[in-house]
Amino acid sequence: MTTNTYTLELPATKETLNQLVAKLCAENEPDARVTLVLGTCSLVCMDSAERREFGTLVKQVEAVYVLRNRLQMLSASYTLAVPATDETIYQLVVKISEENEPDERVTLMYGTSCLVCADPEEREVFGTLVKQMEAVCVLWNSLRTRAAILSKCALVQST
């Protein structure tokens, strides 16, 4: 049985973490065993029974979980207080756009709820770490929806 070995040089950047997660997912099924070397250490299985049997041969899904958690610590997080005004939504769109590249991952909270990746495959890997452009699109669409609702309310009130 051959296993793939992946090495993450430390300190790691968000870009190298994203690249490694993408490579792990592209080259291995979630239950495939891999070796993940983090600097001079190797990741070991989280489950004690598996750790005794497999040691540093972890499931791909475990390696991705560890990398995603590290990526989440390095990624920007934004919270939109609800109820929100058009102005606060717009300000958040500008802030997220100015502080992050379009493919950079961020966490966007609506009050106490998190935006999750729209794509099911991305959601499985990244969960609440969405691309900047997805967060901006969701916020922008909420502005457009609010504008449409307000204009319909104005029409109803004027008749």
Provide a descriptive summary of the structure in words.
The protein is of the alpha/beta class and 159 residues long. The chain has two domains: 4-72, no CATH class; 75-158, no CATH class. Helix content is 53%, strand content 19%. It contains six helices and eight strands. Strands 1, 2, 3 and 4 form a four-stranded mixed beta sheet that branches. Helix 1 (14-27) runs antiparallel to helix 3 (60-74). The longest helix is centred in the C-terminal third of the chain and has 27 residues, at 132-158. It is elongated and about 60 Å long. 20% of the residues are buried.
Question: Roughly what percent helix?
Answer: 40-55%
* Structural Rg: 20 Å
Overall mean pLDDT score? Answer: 90
How far apart the termini lie comes to 74 Å
Number of helices: 6
Overall number of structural domains? 2
Beta-strand segment tally: 8
Name the overall outline.
elongated
Biggest beta sheet attributes: 4 strands, mixed
Query: What structural category do the secondary elements indicate?
Result: alpha/beta
Low-confidence segments, given as residue ranges, are none
Order of helices and strands: EHEEHEHEHEEHEH
In percent terms, what proportion of residues is strand? 15-25%
